[in-house]
TrEMBL record:
GO BP terms, alphabetized: protein transport by the Tat complex
Record region (Disordered): 44-78
Protein family membership: Belongs to the TatA/E family.
Chief place where the protein resides: membrane
Alphabetized Pfam families for the sequence: TatA_B_E
Compartments where found: Cell membrane
Name by which UniProt lists this protein: Sec-independent protein translocase protein TatA
Gene Ontology MF, one: protein transmembrane transporter activity
UniProt topology in membrane: Single-pass membrane protein
Amino acid sequence: MLSNLTGWHFIVILFIVLLLFGAPKLPALARSLGQSMKIFKSEIRSDPPASDPANSANSANSANPADPAKPTDKPTTL
């Protein structure tokens, strides 16, 4: 889809962005986008690697489940 875009498409998109946000706001918008990308990349690098799926399944099963509901012979009315 993006491979079909030509130079004219990018010029039209840039013109629309310029109309929507105005020239004075574009540097602040670009700065905010850059800071967001920097934070995102640092968070991706700081996350520990995912544990082994077999170990995570065993740890989930080792937790004590809640007591199951006990059926009664009497119907309840509200």
